């Protein structure tokens, strides 16, 4: 009787869950008895679905249903609240499993090299998203004291950040927004949120559904500048969006409909600016403004500066220009690219594959593509792993309880799938018990210790 082939997946977001599910299915087709453990550094699963998607996106969060189904039958075991590289080293993990797949995502803001970027009032979008999504490892308070704000970026994250900043907090109550986040947004004096992109309106990276939702925010006027559109058109477009066909046409119609609107006099305004390249953040002790150089098409598919500069008076700047991966201790890492170096998913060290170590998702290829793209990405990695099966399977590994015994000997308060179900039920009960006229699906529990205690049915000490 052959021994089970034991695989650890590090990261319980979509990339990790897809990898575990695809591995289980393809191994069964090949007659391989595989046992998959899914490690997560947070007490709860789902990664960026829980902690990286704006709370007012229920359609995107519907992906949780399919992820739930992949874990619910127990064929992939969840082990949460375990930091690989700290609570358990990679070497220790390899002594317990035949193979390890890293699906740790991209959680840090991309580096922006601008004068003044370190001033108080300059924020990374990743940190702000973690705050409004109730991530347990960020401070409970966010400094929301600016009336004029700038958001740098023309992607969906920039749009999410701008929308949450501009939206009236009462309109977020129907979501799973944590109480401390609602209280913080309620006290915000914001009046104008400005979103800036280096390229033109034909080259925006938003998806049509994200863009359309922006115009449906109650009590917020969308403001566009005719000057930004006078530069656009088939004769000057940089071409990225022109190639997108129907999607570009849909977004062009949305933008035009906003240009045709009369301002309603709403108390908050959301401005979309194009052809603005940031030059520096202004201020001495804190952000007081931001300077841009106006840009134009260079005729070769790119942009160039015009030499014309313009300043905006703002008291906060949010950088939403991309994410990058975080290194895992003792795992090769390409700091310049922000990924684990790999060949089709096989992790490379000095250009050579490290037998038994693999990567998938954004930590493998960078933060590009939508959530659904991680399925195909995971399939490639699993194919490589199964090609290596015969080289890996002969190694003797302990039984499935060995890792739990190890974590308990270290005093690690790990969580399980059953624990997540308990936390999930608790958060839903908080939503049902919410005092007010708004129906809430859940209210997120934020503190890590409280999440762990609820998951493990421990007494909560306040």
UniProtKB/TrEMBL annotation:
EC number: 1.18.1.2
InterPro entries in the record: FAD/NAD-bd_sf, FAD/NAD-binding_dom, Ferredox_Rdtase, Ferredox_Rdtase_adrenod
Annotated FAD binding sites: 15, 40, 48, 84, 362, 369-371
Signal peptide: none
Residues involved in NADP(+) binding: 154-157, 198-199, 210, 369
Coiled coil feature spans: none
Pfam families: Pyr_redox_2
Origin superkingdom: Bacteria
Domain spans labelled FAD/NAD(P)-binding: 5-168
Requisite cofactors: FAD
Root EC class: oxidoreductase
Catalytic activity annotation: 2 reduced [2Fe-2S]-[ferredoxin] + NADP(+) + H(+) = 2 oxidized [2Fe-2S]-[ferredoxin] + NADPH
Keywords linked to the UniProt accession: FAD, Flavoprotein, NADP, Oxidoreductase
SUPFAM superfamilies cross-referenced by the UniProt entry: Nucleotide-binding domain (SSF51971)
Cited PANTHER family: GLUTAMATE SYNTHASE 1 [NADH], CHLOROPLASTIC-LIKE (PTHR48467:SF1)
Family recorded in the similarity comment: Belongs to the ferredoxin--NADP reductase type 1 family.
Protein name: ferredoxin--NADP(+) reductase
């Amino acid at each position: 009787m052959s021994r089970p082939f034991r695989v650890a997946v590090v990261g319980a977001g979509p990339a990790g869950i897809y990898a575990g599910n695809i591995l289980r299915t393809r191994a069964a087709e090949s007659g391989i008895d595989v046992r998959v453990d899914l490690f997560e550094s947070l007490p709860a699963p789902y990664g960026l679905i829980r902690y990286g998607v704006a709370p007012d996106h229920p359609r995107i969060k519907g992906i949780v249903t399919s992820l739930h189904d992949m874990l619910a039958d127990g064929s992939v075991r969840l082990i949460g609240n375990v930091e690989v590289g700290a609570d358990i080293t990679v070497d220790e993990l390899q002594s317990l499993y035949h193979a390890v797949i890293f699906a740790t995502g991209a959680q840090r803001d991309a580096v922006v090299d601008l004068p003044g970027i370190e001033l108080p009032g300059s924020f990374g979008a990743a940190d702000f998203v973690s705050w409004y999504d109730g991530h347990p490892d960020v401070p409970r308070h966010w400094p929301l004291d600016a009336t004029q704000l700038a958001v740098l970026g023309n992607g969906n994250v920039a749009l999410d950040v701008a929308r949450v900043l501009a939206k009236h907090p009462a309109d977020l109550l129907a979501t799973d927004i944590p109480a401390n986040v609602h209280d913080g947004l309620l006290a915000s004096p914001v009046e104008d949120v400005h979103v800036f992109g280096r390229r033109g309106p034909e080259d925006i990276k938003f998806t049509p559904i994200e863009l359309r939702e922006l115009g449906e925010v109650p009590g917020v006027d969308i403001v566009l500048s005719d000057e930004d559109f006078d530069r656009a058109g088939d004769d000057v477009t940089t071409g990225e969006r022109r190639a997108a066909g129907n999607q570009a046409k849909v977004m062009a119609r949305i933008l035009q409909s906003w240009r045709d609107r009369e301002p309603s006099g709403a108390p908050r305004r959301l401005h979309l600016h194009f052809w603005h390249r940031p030059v520096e953040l202004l201020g001495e002790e804190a952000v007081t403004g931001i300077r841009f150089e106006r840009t134009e098409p260079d005729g070769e598919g790119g942009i160039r500066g015009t030499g014309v500069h313009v300043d905006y008076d703002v008291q906060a700047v949010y950088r939403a220009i991309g994410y990058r991966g975080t290194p895992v201790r003792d795992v090769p890492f390409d700091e310049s690219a922000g990924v684990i170096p790999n060949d089709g998913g096989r992790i490379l060290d000095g250009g050579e594959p490290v037998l038994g170590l693999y990567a998938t998702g954004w930590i493998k290829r960078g933060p590009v593509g939508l959530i659904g793209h991680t399925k195909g990405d995971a399939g490639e990695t699993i194919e490589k792993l199964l090609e290596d099966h015969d080289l890996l399977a002969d190694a003797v590994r302990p039984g499935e309880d060995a890792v739990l015994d190890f974590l308990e000997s270290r005093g690690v308060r790990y969580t399980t799938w059953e624990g997540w179900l308990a936390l999930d039920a608790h958060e839903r009960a908080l939503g049902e018990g919410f005092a007010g006229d708004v129906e809430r699906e859940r209210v997120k529990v934020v503190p890590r210790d409280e999440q762990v205690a609820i998951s493990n049915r421990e007494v909560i000490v306040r």
